[in-house]
Specification:
The protein has one helix at 65-75; strands at 3-4, 7-8, 13-14, 28-32, 38-39, 46-47, 52-56, 61-64, 83-87, 93-102, 109-114, 117-121. It is mainly beta and 126 residues long. β9 (83-87) and β10 (93-102) form a beta hairpin.
Length: 126
């Protein structure tokens, strides 16, 4: 499977990042919650049906996308050429690539590809 921003696109798996991951550091699988009975093991927030979650069935461990974002921001620096996921306003994700970073701004501004087009965004959407 191809790897995109630390994530295996075909298997939709996510490697453990910083403190984000199950206790045994298994490869995590990305999925959407089938109902509203799921909870993030990090922030302990109840997750709505259809929420993007990264989970380990062997450890019965699940982490929400917001907690993954916080772990990624704390451990991974995005730069030109970095592969990442762009979070659309509706919450869906699409594969993206960083075209440039403007560090003159605080916080930095990122120019990324979204559906084949260039788009300026902030780190919170990546």
């Amino acid at each position: 499977d191809a790897v995109w921003g630390g994530m295996s696109v075909g298997a939709e798996a996510q490697q453990v990042m910083g403190d984000f991951g199950c206790p045994l550091k298994h490869l995590l699988k990305r999925f959407q919650t089938p109902n509203g009975e799921w909870k993030c093991n990090i922030c302990e927030e109840n997750l709505l049906k259809g929420s993007v979650v990264f989970g380990c069935r062997a450890c019965d461990w699940d982490g929400c996308h917001a907690c993954l974002d916080r772990a990624r921001e704390a451990t991974v620096e995005l730069q030109k050429g970095s592969k990442c996921w762009y979070k659309r306003p509706d919450g869906s994700l699409c594969a993206s690539e960083v075209l440039s970073v403007d560090y003159a701004l605080e916080p930095p501004s990122y120019m990324v590809t979204v559906d084949g087009n260039a788009r300026e965004t902030e780190r919170g959407r990546l």
